[in-house]
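BUG-527 | component: ligand-complex export | severity: low

The export step for LJ64HWYM jobs runs without errors, but we want the raw record kept on the ticket for reference. Input record follows.
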Amino acid sequence: MSAAASSSSSLFQPSPFHLAPRKPHKCSHRLKLTPIRSSSAAAAGNDSPAPPAPTKHRRPADQNIRQEAHLLHTSSTTPNHHFSAKYVPFNASPSCTESYSLDEIVYRSQSGGLLDVAHDFDALRRFDGAYWRSLFDSRIGHTTWPYGSGVWSKKEWVLPQIDPDDIVSAFEGNSNLFWAERFGKQFLGMNDLWVKHCGISHTGSFKDLGMTVLVSQVNRLRRLGKPLVGVGCASTGDTSAALSAYCASAGIPSIVFLPSNKISIAQLVQPIANGAFVLSIDTDFDGCMRLIREVTAELPIYLANSLNSLRLEGQKTAAIEILQQFDWEVPDWVIVPGGNLGNIYAFYKGFHMCKELGLVDRIPRLVCAQAANANPLYLHYKSGWTEFKPMKANTTFASAIQIGDPVSIDRAVYALKKSDGIVEEATEEELMDAMAQADSTGMFTCPHTGVALTALIKLRSSGVIGPTDRTVVVSTAHGLKFTQSKIEYHSKCIPDMACRFANPPVQVKADFGSVMDVLKKYLSKSS
Ligand SMILES: Cc1ncc(COP(=O)(O)O)c(C=O)c1O
Ligand SMILES: N[C@@H](CCOP(=O)(O)O)C(=O)O
């Protein structure tokens, strides 16, 4: 049975760990949060040149934060129309005049190529890097709608023209940049290693960053009267979870195409619980992707995969956030696991915008990491970027990146070339070992993060990444979505895998002597 298939089917069988469920805690305290808003025009969405000096106040009791933002937005004397964005063909020549309003429903250029969201850089450049740094910094840690979100705190660079009223947000982003002190020291001899935990998020993956943008725009389109009956995606489990949650929160129907028996139970249950229309299709992700593209070309269902460049506008904010978390100092390396290959470009775009607009003076080198069982980008890179060949992806524990025909291949190649980037791969054993090693130092990572960590281990051992290089590994999903793979690893029941870092529980008889014997043996080994 495949790793991913067994993840789903064996979940309800008795656990090898024999752990009793815990009693829930009774919670007697509730935190009361007093929303704070900045009185400055900048924080209200205007184009004020001066960064805000926040003033604390209490909004009227009968007003919620969305209404408060609405009042600020409509009463402002300087409408937020200075900044704008539109679709253009991806990597088009400067003489190309083809463009589309973001209010059009379009996913491809006239020639069938990818699109990109182009911002009006002349308008953004009217403010210097110090202004933008200070504006973005001023919005962190507040509940002001919609800037409490790590994505919408960069609204002017994301969807500048959307009305805050149309935004569908779970205050996503602002994820932990974790100093991996022990992992870096113990396994790599590194002192400046960081893990950007994008999976510690509303639906447990970085997809929330893009989905808030896409679903907000759909909300706007429906309000403008566009005949959209729903939003659809093909998914390996994370895009579908994010789409269904954001749609449910806005009351918009969502339709998800999932490859049967190829995603974890935790991922499968997310769209089911959020009320999506779930189609389990007897094919792989690439097959689902082809089908959703055909369906969205026929029916008024909006396409939510990252082929739709709106998604990447949200995802790029993770890069801006990393710079912000380092006080606008640029790391040397950023390592991202790649599947459909939208995210690696999103990271490039976020870093590139910060450089172009004067917030930083360079960009980091990017590494894209793939599972060896689904490695079309890696093979393309190794061939010296000669002809790209889609492949049939094989089963991998990193099931969310089991993709053989990535829609954003051109974007990924562009990002890697522009950032002096590298592509690495990880075998099943390497990625599972790396995940277990990271977990043993206090993280709880997903197999995709294991792929990125393997890339780091390889580049460190070949000396490409130095011991003091500031390096960020992007963790893309929460480990709790992939517990079955951890159970199999720690139970040492994966065929042809040594599971070198397995830590299985010890079965002990319920008497003092037996427990003492086991503990003494353990303590003598560890001292
Ligand atoms: C957990 C996880 N990590 C990494 C990726 C890869 O992202 P991308 O498809 O943008 O390359 C995905 C989805 O593909 C994912 O769900
Ligand atoms: N891992 C993804 C695959 C689809 O990627 P997308 O970014 O194009 O939506 C998923 O979780 O479905």
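Assignee comment: Attached the raw record above. The chain has a mean pLDDT of 90.
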